[in-house]
Amino acid sequence: MGIFDFFKKGADSARKRSANAAKIGKTAQERKDISIEILKSQGVPFIDHLPLRYETSEITPREKDEVIARAICSFAAIMCACSIRDNGELTDEDKQGTKDFLDNRFGCIDKLTRMERRVIEGEASYNEAVNMGWKYESLWALMWAMGLVEELNFPNEICDCKFVMDTFIGGDFSGLVKMRGTDEILQALDLIYRYHWACVNARVHGTKSAGLDEEVVMERRGGLEWLCCKGAENDNLTDEYNVWDYPDLNT
User: Fold this and answer.
1) How many C-beta atoms surround the C-beta of residue 249 within 10 A?
2) This prediction's pTM
3) How far apart are the first and last CA of the chain?
4) Would you say 98 and 74 are in contact if contact means Cβ atoms under 8 Å apart?
5) HEC per residue, 1-57
6) Which member of 25, 110, 119, 181 lies 3.0 to 4.6 Å from 124 by CB, making a disulfide possible if both were Cys?
């Protein structure tokens, strides 16, 4: 069964503790301290002077419906991107099936980013399709934030793509969504931010990063950053360089 037939149908060891660890800080400093405890337990390199992330008061939580729509649009674009990557194109039937999935089934076709729209219209290049395929990991972070994924495991391998597909093709999942609290999301973001530093440091200096996969880390961070930057200057999905397609991933 092909990818678009779905549209038609309408851990590691205890040492690798998950990002939604039992401890959740209430301040940026507390979250940093908790993250460093986790990094130490996992043998992941870190530096004490890496800056703090957001304070809770700085964040405007995204509404449940906004997150659901973003996840649906991302999923549809990922499926199209995988088809372009693997088959070199989208058929007209694929394009129409995707638009029906977004419009008739979920009513969120107007929530696509510019890049997602290029992908579902079959206009994306091979490299753009490959990059969009990596958004599986950003989507996984959203699914965790929506309570559809129990935990964000240590990011040393890709997410469960079959579980993602089963979730979105299985019907209306919105009744299952229970958004996690802002402090819990910020705790996960703080940890992935420090994972990202470890990945960059290892790449630059040719050292080890305890098995972290930098692509997985970057994309999961991108999803968590989007959850925490509502109202930012580039938080407009109609802009070319919007915060979903081009998240700020400085370390």
Assistant:
1) 14
2) 0.91
3) 41
4) no
5) CCHHHHHHHCCCCCCCCCCCCCCCCCCHHHHHHHHHHHHHHHCCCCCCCCCCCCCHH
6) 119
